[in-house]
Amino acid sequence: MSYEFATAIMSVVQSLRTLGGGLLEHQLVCPGSRCSDNVQGTTSYRTIFGFVVLLTFVQITAAETSSSSAVHQDLLSGRPVAFQPGASRTARTIPAIWLLEAVRKGAELNVTNAFIRGPLRVRQRNYKIALPFENDVSLIGCDFEDQADFSYSIFKQTLVLTGSIFHGGASFEGASVQRKAILDRVEFDGGEANFRDAHFNNFLSMQGARFHVKTFFNGAQFDKGADFANGMFADQAIFENIQSGSDLVFQQAHFARLLRLTTSKIAGSLFIVAAEFVGPVQFPGVQIAQNAKFGGAVFKNLFNFTDGQVGSFIDLTGTQFESDSKPVNFERVRIGGRAILDHARFAGTTNFPSVRIGSDASFDGTTFQGPVWFEGAEFVGRAAFHATEFQRLAHFGRVEFHEESLFDGVVFTKEADFTASHFHGLANFNSLKSEKTQKTTFRAGVSFDQARFEEGARFEDCIFHKYVSFYQSSFTALYLSPNGRVDQQDQLPGIVDLQGCTYDRIQVDWRSLLQRPDGSPRPRKYDRQTYVQLAKFLRATGDEQTADEVYLEQRRLERKQLFHTSTVSWLADCFSLITTRYGVARGRLLEFSLVLLFLGMLIFSRPGAVSRNNGNGKDQEKNAAADSHASKLSHWDALAVSVHQFLPLDVPFGSQWTPGMNPIQLEVRLWSGKKRLLKITPCTCASVLRIGGWILVPIIVAIVTGLLSGQQRSIS
Asked: What DSSP letter does each residue of 444-489 carry, written as one string?
């Protein structure tokens, strides 16, 4: 094609060399001549030179015309037209109208490295009618100077535009490509890239494509998927409401502005691995039949996946959400399989409300630098938060955990809220059995209000720095540190709210749970049920001593309240404390009784303490006065008198003696001599015994018969 043009150029060069040699020879023979011959010779040479130039121009024009004509004929006949990349722009330029002529003839288009001059309009203006492409279309490495409009075209065979550049934009709106479409490394640097409602019946490959303009794929269909790997989108990219019959790939692509994939349907998987998104990403309502892979992607702006659906698993391993001012939204997302968010980082607010994960969820090493919301989320499989870091509020309100939930080595820097969450499986907040593993730590408050733990909750080595609330929560089993300490520090240093908390089993050090180190109560507000339930459980397990300690702590707090509300009730409570220690020390009354009886025995055994009761009237008084100076009872008889005076019933035992009126001195012998202990009249001692007996004996009888045997301790 370019041979004739090259031959013409070589002819011109040879002619110029011949002419130049003749001129030089003439000047050497007659240098500086002013003769007329010299002038006439010079004029002749100029005439010859002009003739040669004219002849050369004619040759070049003829060569170009011949070459262009050959290219035109090749296009019309469907033969390949290929230019060398190093050839001049003029040599590689083809009028766009020639391509249309070839299409009208039904010829195959196979052009390489050409410059397409002029607008290429396949369809009729203002009509959705275009010329059909019956054969393959291959425009590789071509440079379209003006707009290329393939709108509503039908490509019945393969479409190849690899490496082509569209300076005036390109439109494939409503076009249909029935076989493969290969647009790898295609570039759009003017106008817009319009693929609205385009239909690719086979696979679309646009690997490495460069979109410097706005790109529109609204309503496009990719029956066998599309690949935009390593693509670059400098302006907004709209893929709204597209349909892909297989995988949609944006692997390692770069999006400088908005990407919109709203309400799109992907029958295969979505690959956004290692892609970079500088602008906002809008995926609301997108439906992915298989997997969604975002591993290693970087999002620097808004990310919205609201109401999205993923049929199998979603993989966000190592994904970076870098904006601290734009949220990440996974609201109401439905994931049929696993969710993998290992080592992902969320810089701003992250929303997972009402998300449903149909299998296991993994948050291994995930970092949430902003607030995170799992309100109403549902984890059907195992939820594993290993070494996860929550730097702001972590909200798990009303979350459903159907299987085991593991919070291993998790750090909650700010408040954590598990209000009304439902743990169907074991809730394990313990660290793995390794000394190097960080303990799960709540550095601020945590709330488990109204939460339900059907398989129990384990907090044995969990650290709570501030308040813990179990308000109206329920456990089948609650496990806290058995000694109240974790890593040489108190497990529960702050306030604990146990109002309405219920459990079937519990492991806890009751003092660390209910008392501060200074003895003040740890619960936020006194709740009798808290103490009654714990004491009841301990008693049911046979730990009577610890149960009594919990019960006494309960009564101590109630006594303090009575002191400020009712003096009479407080005195009655103090009496119960002194006499039976609220029923805990039931032998204390017997001890008091024995002490009184022993004291009476000592007094009544002194000389003159009693007199025989063997007369009436003046004889009895006379005998009593006489015996008061002479009678000295044995200890046994003195004990009998003491018992007779103590019992509220009149019994014969010790009834023959009457306590005297004269004072009796009690002394004790020590190594240094006798020491006086007490001086009292026997009748006064008898009065003390009688009053004490009327009080103590009925209570002892009631305890023995079970009427008062720790009734208050057993109230539930």
From this structure: S-EE-TT-EESS-EE-TT-EESS-EE-TT-EEEEEE--TTSEETTE
The partner residues of 148 in beta bridges, in order of sequence, read 120, 170
Report how far residue 609's alpha carbon sits from residue 621's, in angstroms, rounded to the nearest whole number.
14
Alpha carbons 102 and 76: distance in angstroms, whole number:
5
User: Angle of helix 567-580 relative to helix 682-705, nearest 10 degrees?
Assistant: 90
Place of tokens 């100029």: 46
- Return d(Cα 227, Cα 250) in angstroms, integer: 7
d(CA 605, CA 599): 10
Q: What would the DSSP string read from start to end of 148-214?
A: EE-TT-EE-S-EE-TT-EESS-EE-TT-EE-S-EE-TT-EE-SS-EE-TT-EESS-EE-TT-EE-S-
At 238, is the secondary structure helix, strand, or coil? Answer: strand
Helix and strand totals (H; E) in the chain: 11, 74
What are the C-alpha distances in Å from 136 to residues 100, 166, 226, 344? Answer: 14, 20, 20, 46
User: In which residue are the tokens 């057993």 written?
Assistant: 714
Instruction: Give the residues across from 221 on adjacent strands.
Output: 199, 243
Q: Are residues 454 and 427 in contact, defined by beta-carbon separation less than 8 angstroms?
A: no
d(CA 165, CA 160): 13
Q: What is the pLDDT of residue 2?
A: 43
Q: Torsions phi, psi of 211, nearest 5?
A: -115, 100
The helix/strand/coil state of 388 is coil
pLDDT of residue 16: 46
**β-strand pairing of 115-117 with 93-95:** parallel
Q: Quote the CA–CA distance of 217 and 210 in Å, as a whole number.
A: 15
> Residue 599 — φ and ψ, nearest 5°?
-65, -40
Torsion 280-285-286-289 (CA) sign: positive
Residue 640 is classified by DSSP as H
- The predicted-structure confidence for 333-362, as pLDDT tens digits, reads as follows 999 999 999 999 999 999 999 999 999 999
What pLDDT is attached to residue 128?
67
Total residues belonging to the chain: 716
Q: CA-to-CA distance for 46 and 53, rounded, in angstroms?
A: 11
Partnered with residue 676 across adjacent β-strands are 667
Give residue 444's pLDDT: 94
Q: Which residue has the tokens 């295969």?
A: 268
Host H or E run for residue 428: strand 427-428
**pLDDT score recorded for residue 8:** 45
Q: Are 202 and 223 in contact (CB under 8 A)?
A: yes
SS3 at position 564 = helix
Per-position DSSP letters for 323-338, written without gaps between them:
-SSS-EE-TT-EESS-
Paired strand residues for 489: 486
Long-range Cβ contacts of 670-679 (<8 Å, 24+ apart): none
As a whole number of angstroms, the distance between CA 432 and CA 436 comes to 9
From 326, 273, 343, 335, select the one nearest 308 (Cα to Cα): 335
Residue 175 burial (C-beta neighbours within 10 Å; 0-12, 13-18, 19+)? buried
CA–CA gap between residue 409 and residue 457 (Å, rounded): 16
pLDDT at site 485: 92
Given a cut of 50, the residues of the chain with pLDDT beneath it are: 1-13, 15-16, 18-36, 38-39, 42, 52-53, 56-65, 617-618, 620, 626, 628-630, 709-712, 714-716
Q: Which residues are CB-neighbours of 5 under 8 A, at least 6 positions away?
A: 60, 63, 64, 67, 91
* Pairing state between β 664-670 and 673-680: antiparallel
Q: How many CB atoms lie within 10 A of CB 575?
A: 11
pTM, two decimal places:
0.76
Contact indicator for 359, 338 with CB cutoff of 8 Å: yes
pLDDT for 598: 85
Distant-in-sequence, close-in-space partners of 81: CB < 8 Å, separation ≥ 6: 1, 71, 74, 75, 94, 110, 111, 112, 114
> Taking a C-beta distance cutoff of 8 angstroms, is the pair 118, 146 a contact?
yes
